[in-house]
Amino acid sequence: MTSLPGLAETADHALPLHAATAATFAAWRDQQTPAVQAWLQAQGFTAAAGTHALLPGSEGLAGAVLGVADLRDPFAWAHAPYALPAGEWRMADALDADAQAALQLGWGLGSYRFTRYRAATRAPARLIGAIDAEVAAQLAACARVRDLVNTPTEDMGPADLEAVTREIAQAHGADIDVLVGDDLLLHNFPAIHAVGRASHRDPRLIVLHWGDPSHPHIAIVGKGVCFDTGGLDVKAAAGMRNMKKDMGGAAHAIALAELIMARRLPVRITLLVPAVENALGPNAYRPGEVIATRKGISVEIDNTDAEGRIVLCDALAYAAEQTPQLILDFATLTGAARIALGPDLPVLFANEDRVANDWLDAGLRTHDPLWRMPLHRPYLRYLSSGIADIANGSSTPMAGCITAALYLDRFVPNDLPWAHLDVYSWNDSDRPGRPAGGEAQALRACWAMLKARFG
């Protein structure tokens, strides 16, 4: 088993760790020695959610008790790795399988720190016990998203994203093809090329294939805008500051593909990552241009900062050509989604109720929530163009995330099940299990949905 932050299979010595909810704490406390009861009372400890108390012993520290709101919620445990002193800890009382999985998942998520450029200030407390392989794979997927998004663009440009995908493909016996630069034009991916052509780092389309041809086919698409200046419709400094995260959709797609391969879900996958930088330059695509797309739909550029839908439309058209049973796409697509639902709830669009409902239900089961918004097709009128088939920007500030999804919908056949997730991919501040920086959102829910459907 590969080592995971905060988790270990064995240790020579581990302190006992108890867990209680506010409802069960009194019964647990009454079973302790009078000295421990007095100690807890002196601290005013009531096992409120997200709290802990260290327990004294004759030779120093004898153990600890955690306040946990819901034993089956991973984030209820996530404060433990940095609340407790560094060292080894073992649960003193048995948990059922669901609570044990939540404990390990929450502990792993809470232990994560991005350490590529500086060391962590301290090591997390380590939980000792047999590590569930399913939990380990989900933690690795979440860490993959966080690491990719947290890495600055200088070290995570289109070629770097390709290198990561190649490494994953090699590890799992997948095939990979990459179209770079003007080869995109030769192979009819003009929209991807248009967005990325101004950068000194060539745009590309990364295509990974894996799985038994007899298995159900899933296409997974991720927006890989490795940095977004806004193009000639340049962003203000505040809006550009965190645009290294604009490849968060690609990070989700890559991590999901890696998770599927690692757990050998009986499906066949095609992973598509259009990887570009939306840069300023003498040949940057311009407002008012009409660009071609793979599907043959002409697009008038209303706003060069609405570039994500431009690169995705070519990738979605190609995905549809492969006639998969399901297309999933992930993208940091709109600020309107954040205005509607805030940073924690990704916005889901789907052209089939079953796909949407399965994903939503999985989100509730896994404590990895998302929320569905409507593909209200009458709003396509907001994307009308006087000189092209469609515009890439809306004529109104209303319904911004819906019009973006409707744009993508034009490039997917109505009879092909498709779901689009508009993700923030980011935590603005530190919370237990959710450190500031890159974040995987609704990824575990998506995995649970796919397992239920194809496992």
TrEMBL record:
SUPFAM superfamilies, per database record: Zn-dependent exopeptidases
Keyword Protease applies: yes
Protein origin, superkingdom: Bacteria
Family label: Belongs to the peptidase M17 family.
Keyword Mitochondrion included in the entry's annotation: no
Signal peptide span: none
InterPro entries according to UniProt: Leucine_aapep/pepB, Macro_dom-like, Peptidase_M17_C, Peptidase_M17_N_1
Protein name: Leucyl aminopeptidase family protein
GO molecular function: aminopeptidase activity
Keywords from the UniProt entry: Aminopeptidase, Hydrolase, Manganese, Protease
One Pfam family recorded for the sequence: Peptidase_M17_N_1
Annotated Cytosol aminopeptidase domain residues: 303-310
